[in-house]
Amino acid sequence: MEELKSKVRKKGLDLGMDLVGFTDLSRLINAPKRFQATDYLPTAKSVIVVGCHFPEGSVENWVKSPSSYQYYGYALINKELGRACLHISKLVEKEGYRCFPIVPTGHSKDWDHKKQLGEFSHRHAAVAAGLGEFGYNRLVITPQFGNRIRFCSIITDAPFEPDPMYDGPALCDRCKKCIKACPGDCLDESKLVECQIGERKYEYTTLYHFKCFYHLLGLGPKTGAGIDIKGPKKKGELSQLGFLKRYIKAFILRFQKYQYISRQQNAVDWFEFCGRCLHVCNRPLK
């Protein structure tokens, strides 16, 4: 299997990926039930994770041009991740194994709309594959690229040996820039979440998913869309009724701009506004 593992790693790098890692399923036992690999491939034994770093300048100039980050840091990079997973899957299946490549970003048919969860956690898989560790903002921080990287996973019944988990210096020092920068106050450090991957335990903030989604659509202020319909003042999750009221308000008060950005999102296979927790994070310090 080591020879095939080397071929997979080389294939990923040749396809433009910056990181390639492997984990077995034992490290993901304590991941949320929705994220179990055997739900999709009953014979699964391991997960291949690829990571693609996006241009630093797109993040650093987000305020001046959110479009560059939206396209190169989200929309296009998801296609590149999917392309890499497709060709790696074909390589592994030629060796007689089955693969189930996960879609890089959540699609509505496979999405848990109430909990705002996709069909598999690339973040948990990336940490299990030794590519980094969880930051306070729930994103994976890597020693090479910080959290300016996106991941995608391939579930397979090929019995790959897992890579060592990251065990170096702490990559997050809880500077709380992410919490301060969040325009929707979506990260709550009064309710920390514990997560165990393999033998290691991680702790990060609670995310109000639906409120975060509201800002990813560009409806809230300071998201880059310029629609600027304020969210609720009280800390906590945004209700569906509250979301609907603000959605209608955005549609009426910013009709022309909202129509433009919503169609633009569809035209490029969807991209997100905001991402401020990612933009402001410069950990690990170099």
Describe what you observe in this structure.
- The chain is an alpha+beta fold.
- It has helices at 2-14, 56-60, 66-94, 122-128, 177-181, 209-216, 240-253, 255-267, 276-279, and strands spanning 19-24, 46-53, 99-101, 133-134, 140-141, 149-156, 187-197, 200-207.
- The chain has a domain at 2-174: NADH Oxidase.
- 34% of the residues lie in helices and 17% in strands.
- The chain has a 4-stranded antiparallel sheet with strand order 1-2-6-3, with helices on both faces. Strands 4-5 form a two-stranded antiparallel sheet.
- It is globular, with a radius of gyration of 19 Å.
- The relative contact order is 0.16.
- The mean pLDDT is 90.
Number of H/I helices: 9
Which whole number gives the mean pLDDT?
A: 90
Strand arrangement, major sheet? 1-2-6-3
Question: What's the level 1 CATH class of the domain at 2-174?
Answer: Alpha Beta
Largest sheet: 4 strands, antiparallel
Q: Count of DSSP E strands?
A: 8
Uncertain spans: none
Q: What is the percent of helical residues? A: 25-40%
